[in-house]
Design the sequence.
């Protein structure tokens, strides 16, 4: 639940889940570890999607690809 609400950016839902976790005895340290894991997983997803997007563009629109300038 918390991973989904945080990665989707739903603040009210995330606040509620964080509060319930703390009230149920989850330590702040464990909660912070979970948040760090959620952030790392989402960063990996973003990188993978961007990489696939670049590959798709290279295949479907070669004229869209801009080569970096040489020094």
Sequence:
């Amino acid at each position: 639940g918390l991973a989904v609400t945080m990665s989707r950016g739903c603040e009210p839902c995330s606040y509620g889940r964080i509060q319930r976790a703390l009230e149920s005895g989850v330590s702040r340290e464990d909660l912070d570890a979970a948040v760090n894991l959620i952030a790392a997983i989402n960063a990996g997803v973003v990188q993978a999607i961007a990489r696939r997007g670049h590959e798709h563009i290279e295949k479907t629109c070669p004229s869209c690809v801009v080569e970096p300038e040489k020094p």
User: Anything to note?
Assistant: The helical segments are 2-7, 11-23, 28-60. Residues 28-60 form the longest helix (33 residues).
